[in-house]
Amino acid sequence: MLFLSILLFGQYIISKGDTVKVSYKEYRLDDSLIIAKEERKILIRTEEAREYFGTIIFPYDDSTETIEVLYARTITPEGDTINVTENAINRVAAPLVDSYPFLKNRKELHISFLSIKPGSTIEYCVERKIKNFDYVDGIEYFRSIIPVEYGRLVFHFPQKLGLRFYKGNTEICNFSENLRDSADYRVYEIEFKNVPEIVKNEWGGFPPTHLISPYVMFTTFPSWDSLISYISFHYRKLEAIKPQKMELSKLKELSKKINSPEWENFKIQGYVPIDRNRSASFYTMTYPEKILRIFSSFEGLSLALVLRYGYDTLNLIPSLSAIENIVLYDGIRFLFPIQSEEKVLSTPYEGHIALVLSSDLNSYSVEQIGFRDVLSETLFIDIPRKLISFSSWVPSSRLLRSYSWSRRSRVDFEDAEKFIPRSKFSIYGVIKDFAASLKYENVPDKPYFISGRVKYKSIGSQIGKYLILYIPEMPKIEPELFKNGYYLNRWDVSKRNVCFIVKVPKGYRVKYAPQPVSYEDDKVSLIRDVEYNRGLVIIKQSMAFLKRYFEYEDLVKMTRSPEFVNLTSPQVIIFERKR
Amino acid sequence: MLKIIITFLVFGKFAYIVELDSTYEAYYESGISERIEYRRVKVLENEIPEELRALEVTYTPYYNTADFEFVRVIRGRDTLYLDTEDIVDVLAPPDLGGTIFWGERKKILEIKDLRKGDILESKVKKYGGNWLGPTGVDKYKTPYPGYFNQIVLFGEEVPVKKKVYLLEELPEKPIKFGIFNGKIRHRIITKDGKKIHVFYSKNIRPYKVESLSPSIYDFVPKLIVTNIPSWNEMSRIEFHRAEPNVTPNETIKIFADSLCKGIMDEDEKIRRLFYFVADEIRYLGLIESEMEGYEPHPAWLTLQKRSGVCKDKAALLVALLRAQGFKAYYATTAVGMRVENIPADQTNHAIVAIERGENYEFLDPTIGAGGRDLLPASEGGQSVLVSREDGDTLRTIPVSPAEKNKVSIYIYTNLSGDTIHFVYLMNFDGAFDQRFRRVAQSGRQRMENFLHNILSEVYSGVVVIDSIRFTDPKDYSDYFKVWISGRAFNSVINTSDFKLYRPVCSKLTSSFVYFLRHLNSKRELDLVISSPQTYEVKEFVPLAKVVEPLKKHVSFGKEQAYLFNFETGYFVDQVEGARYFLNTEESGGWYSLTTSFVFSKKKYSPVEVKSMFKDYQNLQESENIWLIFKGE
């Protein structure tokens, strides 16, 4: 809906002169301390940039880090310097502490810049010191939502640390690098100039940053085996604590154990320790806990580490930053339990690579998460009886348990209309009566099945001697809306099969019906079969996406193909009254 | 047996119930109070809801305190007291989308290993005032010094077996009270010579929130107790608090003069000052005064820092207006909830009132930012208290009628070969101006994407936009307008004899109405929309090209509530402009299709929503129409 889009706009910038003039970041590493210094100068011209950069947030963990503001100021267009005052520097709890009090060390430093006018420059420098780390691992992106004029990233690190780097998308900007040794230290220096801004696709399909931004990933893990061992080591410890085995009398003792620094450290760090901005998000922070709860509650499940899209162990350094999420694997399917629902199929990760840990956590295998998500629908349109019978296999968002609409009450999906609303059938005519029922809602092994009947006062549009019946087209994709990135095949099913069986009314003949279509390449498969059989017109339509992300050029090519256009264009069957 | 069945039906689907929620409160001469909150909850499910995994209380140092006296879990015969040393005391994350830093803190206690059948009990002691105020010489105070007031809701999203609120009355400052949105029982008892008001309810059904339903303060049983004598007194207190900070100093006077230089017209001056405060002052709440949340910052400080929240923006605008000779006043109101007519602290927002003649004109430079109107239509009908030296009564902001908040679109459609050529003239008046102007303020490309998306949803085939023009988003001289011309491919079905086209006016109209998807036949609560509003989309097609143009008129609605209308007609001369836009030489007039929706009210009862849902379905089913174009 249009207005929803407007409400969702929020903070959004199309740069009109807003620029990151200088971005400088420096890591100084030794065996027990990381010092990360960040300096930026940002020219603000628009209200949107003022809102977006007016308050800059730095998440941190005060049990392992300190973060100090070395300076923060606004330079007005008139040349005045307005330093950020004390009341505009706030250290607050991270929002997730509400739900997870044991994360009390998670904090956010908010710096609110003052007296910003169009043409002001904000400048800041913060220094973060990190101690008590087992490894070094992270990712730095060079692209922002406004253009970056000049940037520099420097790593100073002891050679024996074994820090390794992996860079991507560097062709997007003017990029240069330099690696030099001095005594026991090594310096890796990167310069980047004229990085264009990221312009978001507002209607979904915004690609992950690692696909569109130049970046450098770094890690001290020597191999994927060592990385998996590290994770398994922690999981093995945690797996021993099974909540259902707890006794009230032992609760206090156990609580202490759960709150041990080791446990906290693992939960806090998750698996992306250096990427602080990311680790402050809800998912990364708490997801392992949820996964573990399910993992330890059901037998036959394995843990699966899903790599970010496009990454494979074969072409990547072993980095925790490459992991997007942790899901479960039951030997057949990847399970994606999100906060309040448990999906059987891992729709959000189709096309990704996953590292599946064996149930004893001693080994792992690399698996591709396949495309499984299919919607199948059949409609029998009986024009003479003014009746449509339908059945539908609902896509894979089957719920293992009832969905919790609110946090307090639980509502079951008893109502078929939640899946297939009556309004879907209004395109065929004036509805007299609508009934639908949901089957298998309590049978987790079967997909939801919905069937129903719609009675009409009249079906189709009668214009003179013609009776026109609308056949809904397949969902359209408008490439122009995704030209700033990728179209993300995520919000819908990956395959859609729809079959229309239309009974020809007496006294009429078929004057027009859609043309058959058949097309397949490595990205998409499109089929429409049209059959005439004993007074029936049978139209079978199928559209399947074989990739997860489509670059703009691919999307244009695909959507402009005659077959795609045909399947996504309005279609009708026209019946003509016989004389 | 019956009791068991009823218990199962009522409580069965909830993860827990509140067995007892009891509060004892005593207030003092100064208006501050001391309260003890006891709560007993029974867990009914194995899966523990998030709100029971941790208990929390909020407080603001220097203003009030809050402490857990105990938290315990009762399982069968065992009772486990949770160690209050495990309480986490943190500075709360900033409020309102990360913009307000007023020093609120939270004490959080994690509840581990709660299970089905457990009883969770907690007792909390609070002392101080009941609002957010960060600093000050006096450690404890209330926003209306010397007065006590409190709002208590009797209902939750889970069933409550019993809720009790006991208030010890101070003889020197007796209270009055009001009960709203339902029943709450009341009696007075005397204990140890103290007069105690007992407010209570039993077996309170849980409330359920629906999309676009009113604030829970507008439908859950609500008790307001207060000893503030009148609205007049509140108005006076607000006046004396705000006045020093809204009085223009030299800086403000000079700045106002510079903004209004060369402007003679009074309305124009008001607009200039309004748009400056609305657009140039960033929404940010930092601690600058002893009564954050109530006392506006000095106008010069807000101007200097170019930031502030609603109260600060309102105060700056009052000061700028006064500097230009207007009788402007600071005013308080509530957003998103009703103000009951009992003098108590029920407001959450500040705006500006200009006295012109015998009336006030209201301006809101916070919520109104980015729009042409000086007061958003969404605030129509709300109560407002103007801060005056002699006090004032509670007033009502006039409602902006549906015809003033209008989307009107004219579409000129022509067919050339298999291509649809279109021209759109879009007018966004009243409340819609702000919404669409804000999109345009984010840049031309964003606006183009936005419009492309609209048209892409409307036409089935491929859309190519040839030209887009729209009002300069910073030009507030007229409401926002958009002009588009372009083509749609594959939107026509070709047969051997004729072509079929499905008009887009109905689809376009529906795509603009954000709340249509919230309509359903099972509504239980009122539906609240932003303001009364109108949508009208007219599509014109060259009459000569249409085979057997249908005459159709369907209309569904309820008088004084809403109207869905679809009709076709013929025009010969009225759309002369269309010929120019489409660059065609059509003759024989135009065939028109018009879809219009009118929503005359802000609030619709469940009965009205159900009938609106049905009528909308009827309209959707009735307006299915295909046009047959002559073959070529």
UniProtKB/TrEMBL annotation, chain A:
This is DUF3857 domain-containing protein. It holds the Pfam family DUF3857. It comes from the Bacteria. It comes from candidate division WOR-3 bacterium. Residues 40-197 form the DUF3857 domain. Gene3D superfamilies: 2.60.40.3140.
Automatic annotation (TrEMBL), chain B:
Residues 33-207 form the DUF3857 domain. Residues 256-340 form the Transglutaminase-like domain. It comes from the Bacteria. Pfam families: DUF3857, Transglut_core. This is DUF3857 domain-containing protein.
